[in-house]
């Protein structure tokens, strides 16, 4: 049995994705900052017959991500699928003219150093398995920069470039990197961007392995 590792476990998309991959037969490593929340999510998934366990880490502390992922693999089994989708902080989204160089430290750690650390932690195990999937989830500013959200626009663009390079470089090793862009707000009443539908899209990216960038819905005009 292999593991689906979710960085950014929460009650919305995170829980839905964990349930989708878990019911497909993967163990689930839930990675986020709050131990109590992780325990609650693991208990909810257990009621659905999903074996899940929480591992505390912070996307702004790359070393903690590496430790959590190594511990998860040792405890639950090798990581076959990694999803990087932690929720961004509000202070990442200052207007561009109000953004200083120092303001970019946290967004770039969050969206570049975090993913690079996570991928480097799981890639050896994927190579041993002979397969793997790397899933990156971003908002619309990853492909359409927004001047009122400078931090995420810059950091998501860098994350996108990294993920695209992984897609091209790791394909010969049967490791598939893909990005899902969610332009709008994730909401249960949304036709295309509700948690369950998005989780289904992410699972399809893993199984169908078709292309790099995908959109949950069309970018607004």
Tell me what the structure shows.
The chain is α/β, with parallel strands linked by helices and about 220 residues long. It is about 45% helix and about 20% strand. It is built from 6 helices and 7 strands, in the order βαβαβαβαβαβαβ. The protein has helices spanning about 15-25, 35-45, 60-75, 105-130, 150-170, 195-210, and strands spanning about 5, 25-30, 50-55, 80-85, 130-140, 175-180, 215. The protein has a 7-stranded parallel sheet with strand order 3-2-1-4-5-6-7, sandwiched between helices. α5 (about 150-170) links the parallel β5 (about 130-140) and β6. The chain is globular. The N and C termini lie far apart (about 45 Å). The mean pLDDT is about 95.
Salient structural properties:
globular, SDR_fam, 221 residues, SDR family NAD(P)-dependent oxidoreductase, alpha/beta, NAD(P)-bd_dom_sf, 7-stranded parallel beta sheet
How would the blueprint of this fold be written?
Layout: E1 3-7, H1 13-23, E2 27-32, H2 35-47, E3 52-56, H3 62-76, E4 79-84, H4 105-129, E5 132-139, H5 150-170, E6 175-182, H6 195-208, E7 213-215
Parallel strand pairs: 1-2, 1-4, 2-3, 4-5, 5-6, 6-7
Helix pairs in contact: 1-6, 3-4, 4-5
